Amino acid sequence: MSCETESCFFDYLKNHSVTVTFMVPSTVNALNKLSAIKGTFSSLKKVLVAGEALSEDVAREFIRIYKPEYFGQTYGSSETGFPTMKPIADGLNNLKSNGVPVHGQQVKISDFESNESLPPHKIGEIRVKGSQVTNGYINNPKANEASFDNEGFFKSGDAGHLDEFGNLYFAYRFKEIIKYDGYAVAPTELEFILMEHEAVKEAAVIGIHDEEGYGELPKAFVVLKEGFADIVSEKALIDYVSSQVCFYKQLRGGVVFVPKLKRTTIGKIDRRALKNLK
After folding, report:
1. Per-residue confidence in pLDDT tens, the chain, 278 aa
2. Closest to 26 in 3D by CA, of 50, 43, 60, 3
3. PANTHER family given for it (predicted)?
4. Of the residues 20, 29, 72, 230, which has the fewest C-beta atoms closer than 10 A?
C-alpha cells in the first residue's frame, strides 16, 4: 500500500495494528499533531527513524502519545546503507543518538580539511567503512578518489560526532550549510524553531544568493496548520525566529507559505526543488 499523506499513514498504522515501523522525522512530527485530531492507538512497539535530524522534544512527544517500547534513530545513506543503529536494549533512552556501529561496520569522525581523526564530542565529517559501503561509483574514478580517504573510509559529507561510548550523533549535512557573511548556519536549527510555533505544520530552510554580497540568506518555506492562514503572517514567523537566534541566523531571506513541501521518494525534504521556488 502507498500513502501520500501523513493522515493516510496514520490510518494504516491504526487500522492494521502495526507494531514495527520506519519513518522520517517529519512524519514523526505529523503523527504527533494528528493525534489531537484523530486520537491515538497503542499497537506500535518499535519505531526506527532516519533521513533528517530529529528534535528530541518531538521524539519525547511521540513517545508520550503512542507509548512504543523502543524508539531509535539510525544513520545512513545510499552509499553506506545503515551502518549504525541504537541497540534494542536502550529502549527509550538516548534519544539524540543515531546508534552505534552495527556488526562489520566502522565509523570515525575526521576533520573536514586536515583529515585527522577527531576525539569524542568534536564535530567533524562522518566517515564509514564496512561491508555495507559501496565499492565506488561506476566509471567515475575522479568521484571515487574524492569520496574515500587513505584508510578506505567513505567520506559522507555529513557532520556529526561520537561520544566516549561510540554513539554517533548526526549534526547536519555539510552541503546544506548556509554561509552568511562568513558564518555557518545549520538549516535544521531554524527548522526546529519554526516547528515549535503553534501555527506551523512543516518547515524547511535553504540558503538563497544575496545580491549585496553577504553570501547566502536563510529563507524558510512553511506549511501552516489548518485555520492559521489568515492569522499568522510571514513577518510574525520572522520575528519569532529572530527572538531566539543570534543576528546571523535570522531569516533575512524571508518566509514563503506553501501548501506542501516537496519530498524525495524516501520522504526527505527536496531542497533542490525549493531552490527553484520563488
Report:
1. 567 788 999 999 999 999 999 998 888 988 998 998 999 999 999 999 998 888 888 899 999 999 999 999 999 988 999 999 999 999 999 999 999 999 999 999 999 889 999 999 999 999 999 999 999 999 999 999 999 999 999 999 899 999 999 999 998 888 888 999 988 898 988 998 998 899 998 899 999 999 888 899 999 999 998 889 889 999 999 999 999 999 999 999 999 999 988 887 767 788 888 888 76
2. 50
3. AMP-BINDING DOMAIN-CONTAINING PROTEIN-RELATED, LONG-CHAIN-FATTY-ACID--COA LIGASE
4. 230
From the list 111, 123, 97, the residue with the least C-alpha distance to 153 is 111
Instruction: Report the SS3 class of residue 217.
Output: strand
Identify the residue whose cell numbers are 496514520. Answer: 10
Q: Are 136 and 152 in contact (CB under 8 A)?
A: no
**Can you read off the three cell numbers belonging to residue 134?**
559501496
Helices (H) and strands (E) in the chain, counts: 7, 14
Are the C-beta atoms of 269 and 204 separated by less than 8 Å?
Answer: yes
Strand 46-49 versus strand 20-23 pairing type: parallel
83 contacts 101 by C-beta, under 8 angstroms: yes
Residue type, 158: D
Measured over the CA atoms of residue 99, residue 104, residue 110 and residue 116, the dihedral's sign is positive
What count of Cα atoms within 13 Å lies in the side-chain half-sphere of residue 244?
13
CATH number given to 177-275: 3.30.300.30
Q: What are phi and psi of 184, to 5 degrees?
A: -100, 130
Q: CATH homologous superfamily for 76-81+97-171?
A: Luciferase; Domain 3 (2.30.38.10)
Q: Return the residue matching grid coordinates 523502543.
A: 70
C-alpha cell at 66: 503512542
Q: Coil, helix or strand for 161? A: strand
